[in-house]
TrEMBL record:
Lineage of the organism: Bacteria, Bacillati, Bacillota, Clostridia, Lachnospirales
A Pfam family annotated for this UniProt entry: DUF1667
Superkingdom per UniProt: Bacteria
Protein name: DUF1667 domain-containing protein
Database matches in InterPro entries: CPE0013-like_sf, DUF1667
Cross-referenced SUPFAM superfamilies: CPE0013-like, Formate dehydrogenase/DMSO reductase, domains 1-3
Length: 130
């Protein structure tokens, strides 16, 4: 039995409207794509959708109560809520720097959650750019 899904490709700025035909959960046909990246995107989105997770985490002793974080790589879409439960249960201790690992190997995915900005203490000042 065939399953047909319609989607908008986000692999490039064109935003092609594609029709993807699946049989037994395998992509057998992709229509409407303008480039090869559309086929790759459609197959990945239909068989193993992933997303970069961006959020904030609580900071103890920081200049600000929250710091922005993201997953170092795309996470499986089905694990996002589980990952958020873990992140919401963690409090970071200032100071920390951009790129530092906030949560290692979140939910056994092999992917780290990293800071996207510095988490300074209340008395620290950011070093001036040279």
């Amino acid at each position: 039995m065939s399953d047909i899904r319609k989607m908008v490709c986000i692999a490039c700025p064109i935003g092609c409207h594609m029709k993807v035909t699946l049989e037994n959960n395998e992509v057998v046909k992709v229509e409407g794509n303008s480039c090869k990246r559309g086929v790759v995107y459609a197959k990945a989105e239909c068989t193993n959708p992933t997303r970069i997770l961006t959020t904030t985490m609580r900071v103890i002793g920081g200049k600000y109560p929250l710091v922005s974080v993201k997953s170092a790589e795309p996470l499986p879409k089905g694990k996002l809520f589980e990952c958020m439960k873990v992140i919401n249960g963690v409090q970071l201790q200032a100071p920390m720097s951009i790129g530092d690992v906030a949560v290692k190997n979140i939910c056994d995915t092999g992917i780290d959650i990293v800071l996207t900005r510095d988490a300074l203490t209340a008395t620290q000042k950011k070093a001036a750019a040279v």
